Amino acid sequence: MVAARWNCFSFQLVFAISFIFSIAEVCNGGRTSSFVRNSDLSRDMPLDSDVFLVPPGYNAPQQVHITQGDHLGNAVIVSWVTPDEPGSNSVFYWAENSELKNSAQGIVLTYKYFNYTSGFIHHCTIRDLEFDTKYYYEVGIGNSSRRFWFVTPPAIGPDVPYTFGLIGDLGQTHDSNSTLTHYELNPAKGQTLLFLGDLSYADAYPFHDNARWDTWGRFIERNAAYQPWIWTAGNHEIDVVPAIREVIPFKPYTHRYHVPYTASGSTSPLWYSIKRASTYIIVLSSYSAYGINFTI
Ligand SMILES: *[C@@H]1O[C@H](CO)[C@@H](O)[C@H](O)[C@H]1NC(C)=O
Ligand SMILES: *[C@@H]1O[C@H](CO)[C@@H](O)[C@H](O)[C@H]1NC(C)=O
Ligand SMILES: *[C@@H]1O[C@H](CO)[C@@H](O)[C@H](O)[C@H]1NC(C)=O
Ligand SMILES: [Fe+2]
């Protein structure tokens, strides 16, 4: 009995120690930055800031962003907004070393929020991509078309190296810009960003001024058009304001940020999972049950 207990204890000890070693080995990223955020509350960047510039050309696609488009990483959802008219739903795309241009057709939608009417929001899933390959893609028409690129992840497997970034509560303050710049300049070179909820903070404005969702989309494009941002909703995405008859939770978020929830058999974009390289990412939204009668 005693011996048996001891055996059990030593087994646990060995297990605990090897677990600690494995944490140290696998997870010790070290201290990567001496960055300390200013304690003053930072203000939102003004509307005429460089980060909010509208791309030139009639009806030019703006707020371009991508996310994973299926369960294993062979598809990408490309999303963008055209301001003046629906324009084209097509995405043209080709592998770096290929002459062959493929095209895929997406959908376009709009929504209203109090007295705001959105631009034309396009979502297009491009499928059957090769793993570990650089692709270029184009959206828009003629001389207003715009070209971007992304790199698909390696095939999934237990030991596949891959680097994720983590950002949450980004908003659009001057600090938001230094957070994004900090991520971009990190020598570890994040390949995909896990976004932990609370995107634009448009809900801080009177009537949740949804024009601040558009400025946020233009702000993050410089990164989110080139690598997938994996989305989770936070409390700032609920956007329910019964006083102005806005009672559908997550309306701006779910119209603007599409995710591959059906690929994991989910019935809600707030709950889904994907595999990517060596990870299995499960997205849970603790706010998804919040409806009309909620308190934050
Ligand atoms: C935001 O950061 C980028 C890159 O670091 C810089 O070029 C730009 O001027 C900054 N804009 C504002 C409004 O701070
Ligand atoms: C919406 O209504 C508010 C309050 O009346 C007003 O300040 C704002 O300019 C309006 N916005 C639009 C897009 O009409
Ligand atoms: C873009 O094309 C349109 C129509 O095809 C033309 O009217 C316009 O001048 C062109 N703009 C530039 C900058 O080339
Ligand atoms: Fe937050």
UniProtKB/TrEMBL annotation:
Residues 60-155 form the Fibronectin type-III domain. The lineage of its organism: Eukaryota, Viridiplantae, Streptophyta, Embryophyta, Tracheophyta. Keywords: Glycoprotein, Hydrolase, Iron, Metal-binding, Signal, Zinc. GO terms for molecular function: acid phosphatase activity; metal ion binding. This is Purple acid phosphatase. Its EC number is 3.1.3.2. SUPFAM superfamilies: Metallo-dependent phosphatases (SSF56300), Purple acid phosphatase, N-terminal domain (SSF49363). It comes from Gossypium australe. Belongs to the metallophosphoesterase superfamily. Purple acid phosphatase family.
